[in-house]
Amino acid sequence: xxxxxxxxxxxxxxxxxxxxxxxxxxxxxxxxxxxxxxxxxxxxxxxxxxxxxxxxxxxxxxxxxxxxxxxxxxxxxxxxxxxxxxxxxxxxxxxxxxxxxxxxxxxxxxxxxxxxxxxxxxxxxxxxxxxxxxxxxxxxxxxxxxxxxxxxxxxxxxxxxxxxxxxxxxxxxxxxxxxxxxxxxxxxxxxxxxxxxxxxxxxxxxxxxxxxxxxxxxxxxxxxxxxxxxxxxxxxxxxxxxxxxxxxxxxxxxxxxxxxxxxxxxxxx
Length: 269
Prior knowledge:
By secondary structure, this protein is mainly alpha-helical. 81% of the residues lie in helices and 0% in strands.
């Protein structure tokens, strides 16, 4: 499990988990789980299109993820955000279906992009993944205060001079880039599991923003590591373990919260 060919899996998985935990905290805080689901599926279509024209799939992932993010943002100005997200999702999926129908050579790779193929990450893919991850982290760090304020109280953010529309677009861009990185590792269908399950569990455990953000990252990394080990031992897709373990982390946190609420106030710790 710790042999040389697994090094890339552990490195790329850890990068994805750190990023998903950080971005996912705000996804949960802002109620943007639908967007976190739609954007990776749109990015999947981009990988199919990139293969069709003979370029690196990561380029297609980034382009289509960003396209989905800007499309959701633009449509949300004229209609409800959930409707805008759904429209962007169906459009990207339609394009993906057309690309796949045109390129038969791409079919063997469909399963890997849907459900993840972390054991197939090459050394040449690590550098662009790391660079994009750094860009996302820097962007999230820059946006932290206005993003947190606009997530908790948009009205107060506006009163303090925060341009909520710009923050919304910038955050969707960060989600898009994060999704483009995560799709080749954990798959398009389950990327949002890592961005929702562990962060939601962290929000249950504590209401303090910085502590919840830290716990979100810790839970995400633990989930990813456990999923990598389980995938290695069983030869099942990592996406399966990411999805089930993400849900498991949330259920454990929910159970802990319920037990705490039923605990007598005078009980000793």
